[in-house]
Design goal:
mainly alpha, 148 residues, 7 helices
Length: 148
């Protein structure tokens, strides 16, 4: 459930995008994103933590590790994290998410922090990861879709 719906009752297409991102991360990790215990093991929290540490391949479900294409896996993680960003305007549309998943040449923005990451230490959030954050420009990716 998207945070804007859970907290304010606001629903939009971007709420569905959020749910889609959670599902993508659950499928590729083999971990559920529900429950109140062991938040470090939830798919979206773990995906973000490993993304920031440049250890995303550790998220891969072990049952598919031998046959999984790592480039496709990384693309799925990237899209999943883009879909669960805190600000709905930063999330792609479903059409753009599908293009990013199906295209090897689509421009992949760097995701921002997900909505449900608990900030434990405000001083640690001031330092950014080694990956630069890019602002979301859906027009660029939509033009890729129309150019096919």
């Amino acid at each position: 459930m998207s945070p804007e719906y859970a907290l304010d009752g606001l629903f939009s297409e971007k709420s569905d995008v959020f749910s889609f991102g959670v599902m993508v991360l659950e499928i590729i990790s083999g971990k559920r994103n529900t429950g109140f215990y062991q938040s470090e093991q939830k798919s979206a929290f773990l995906a973000w933590k490993l993304w920031k540490e440049d250890k995303v391949l550790e998220l891969m479900d072990q049952t598919v590790s031998e046959t999984c294409n790592t480039n496709e896996f990384m693309r799925c993680v990237n899209v999943g994290l883009l879909c669960v960003q805190e600000d709905p305007s930063d999330r792609p549309t479903m059409a753009v998410a599908v293009v990013m998943l199906s295209s090897e040449t689509a421009i992949m923005p760097v995701p921002k922090e997900p909505a449900f990451v608990v900030k434990r230490d405000l001083s640690s959030t001031a330092s950014s990861s080694s990956k630069p954050e890019a602002s979301w420009k859906s027009e660029i990716l939509v033009s890729i879709e129309e150019g096919r």
